[in-house]
Specification:
The protein has 395 residues and is an alpha+beta fold. It contains nine helices and twelve strands. The strands form three sheets. Strands 5, 6, 7, 10 and 11 form a five-stranded antiparallel sheet that branches. The radius of gyration is 31 Å and the shape is elongated.
């Protein structure tokens, strides 16, 4: 009992510490936003004073062309005005508008995306793993936000704020590729929606669907096993913002948006960092003649031992096309619920590949029409056979 109370107390302290850290990051975000507003004001004022100085210089030159008795006095007044504008700019607006604009453009995405990471952390449907990643992402940018906010406190000889502090960030002691990723703001987003019999199944399925869409869009060179590598990498390394509800049919529906750092979104990085995909011995297969099928039909797909994997693929015939409608997972083949599987569906020389996704036993997965999981029935083959094969992937 004593150890249980100790464990609960430790957990409470840990959660309180995380909440304090989030508060500190939010304060850093607020200070950075105020600094950005000051820099924007300084940029606008600097542009006005610079334009005024140019006009005063032009006026001084034009006045001296005239041969009037008041020219000397006007020239002196213009010189005083020019000096006053220069002194005001140096004293109150020491940074030129190019420096201010560059700093704002560089830090605005960091501010926005750090706040987005905090929103992911506080999301009610965010998993514990994603919450941890969001906190780590925001915490990694806290120092940069604080350094940016100190631009008006740091001075160099002469009392003028140093422009260097605007962009200076400490280099983390990590590999060059990882260092580049730490500095890069999250800029790529990909969303997907999944409907399943349970919330956890819908959440995980949507996550891998979003990762598949991201992999196809961001790493077009990836195909086959390399595509599965990219999917697994995006699914496990990206932040996920989720929203789950009950669909009209009573099933759970989850929409997930993956936030992918810009430097993750290229095949060279995925190929360098993503581990190889390891297929297990478990395989499932099934076949059905589809020459005279009408409406909807089911193709059972299972291993030699049904406990090693059992699925039912439901298709709908639409003219000369077969559209995958739903997948029922009777047994995912694993000890723990939720295994990764990849499938290939063949029909008359045409192959439809379903890259890796996570399937939970006793769950039904509806396939969205927008995913375009279709095959064409060839009229040249009098007895076309629909064959499905699946392999389980090591998690």
């Amino acid at each position: 009992m004593r150890f249980t109370l100790f464990g609960l107390g430790f957990l409470a302290l840990s959660l309180n510490a995380q909440e304090l850290t989030i508060k500190e990051i939010e304060l850093a975000i607020g200070a950075a936003e105020r600094t950005a507003q000051k820099l924007d004001t300084m940029k606008n004022a600097g542009q006005i004073i610079a334009a005024l100085s140019i006009l005063l210089a032009i006026a001084t030159g034009l006045v001296q062309i005239l041969s009037k008795p008041w020219v000397k006095h006007v020239t002196a007044a213009l010189a005083v005005a020019t000096t006053a504008a220069t002194l005001i700019k140096q004293q109150f607006f020491p940074l030129d508008h190019h420096t201010c604009e560059s700093a704002i453009e560089e830090m605005s995405p960091v501010i926005y995306e750090t706040r987005a990471a905090i929103e992911v952390y506080r999301g009610k449907d965010t998993s514990a793993d994603d919450r941890h990643k969001a906190l780590a992402y925001a915490l990694a940018r806290k120092a940069s936000l604080e350094r940016f906010s100190s631009v008006f406190k740091v001075t160099r000889a002469g009392g003028v704020p140093s422009a260097f502090v605007l962009n200076a960030t400490p280099a983390p002691d990590i590999m060059p590729v990882q260092r580049q990723q730490m500095r890069a703001p999250i800029s790529e987003k990909q969303s997907a929606t999944a409907v399943a019999s349970s919330k956890e199944a819908a959440y995980q399925h949507a996550r891998y669907l979003a990762a598949e869409r991201a992999a196809r869009r961001l790493t077009p060179k990836a195909d086959g096993d390399s595509l599965n590598r990219a999917i697994q990498y995006f699914a496990t390394q990206s932040l996920a913002d989720a929203h789950c509800t009950k669909s009209k049919s009573g099933l759970d529906e989850c929409e997930i948006t993956l936030r992918i750092p810009r430097d993750y979104a290229q095949w060279s990085v995925v190929d360098y960092l993503a581990p190889p995909v390891r297929f297990q011995k478990d395989q499932v297969s099934g076949a059905k003649a589809v020459a005279h099928t009408l409406g909807s039909f089911t193709v059972p797909v299972s291993a030699k031992s049904r406990v090693d994997g059992r699925f039912d693929f439901q298709f709908v015939r639409e003219g000369d096309q077969l559209r995958l409608w739903a997948i029922d997972c009777g047994n995912d083949g694993g000890v723990a619920n939720g295994e990764l599987w990849a499938f290939e569906i063949r029909l008359a020389g045409e192959t439809l590949r379903l890259p890796m996704n996570r399937y939970y036993a006793r769950n039904r997965y509806q396939v969205a029409p927008t995913d375009n999981r279709r095959l064409t029935i060839s009229t040249k083959d009098p007895a076309p056979q629909l064959r499905i094969e699946g392999r389980r992937i090591d998690d």
